[in-house]
Amino acid sequence: MTRIERVKAATRDDHQQIDDMVMAMKPFDSRVNYARFLKMQYCFHRVMKPLYAAPDLNDLIPGLSSRSRFDDVCADLADLDVARPKDTTPSAAHMAAPQKGPGRLGWLYVCEGSSLGAAFLLKAAGNIGLDDTFGARHLRGHADGRGRHWREFVAQLNELELDEAEEAEFMQGAHDAFAFFHGLLLEDQRLAA
């Protein structure tokens, strides 16, 4: 199995839990629900932004800095006149993306994987009058196409030389990224109750 196949298998349950929770909040039934989803996206992409800008990661993964969707999330919030959330939420404050080490690659895997699955979400956003030019910019695919963009990223990650300890950090980083988003979902549920 390749590195990406291994991390995908290891995080399948994490990923499914997130998908189920997001769909349960019905983000595309109304703009109110979508705004809740968008705030979580903001919190996640805000912690990801330094990883996309990290010089050492850009050396390992050329073009990484151009992949960040943080600015698009901010524009989507502005489109809908939704205030940016505070920098931390109680459930997620204990965890942030690591600022060094191979664990960051696991976080990037999760973030980039979410852009691949966003094609379905972008289509659903049309139900509430949003598209890739208004309110749902962060869900749009890359100009080169989602599939091609993802395959390039996968190839870059699979080609990296990591020792056993670094592989473990990479895997833990992916689990931690899913756990961070899970914390955002739990906080949203608490606030909505």
TrEMBL record:
Coiled coil: none annotated. One of its GO terms (biological process) is heme oxidation. It comes from the Bacteria. It holds the Pfam family Heme_oxygenase. GO terms for molecular function: heme oxygenase (decyclizing) activity. This is Heme oxygenase. It comes from Thalassospira profundimaris. The lineage of its organism: Bacteria, Pseudomonadati, Pseudomonadota, Alphaproteobacteria, Rhodospirillales.
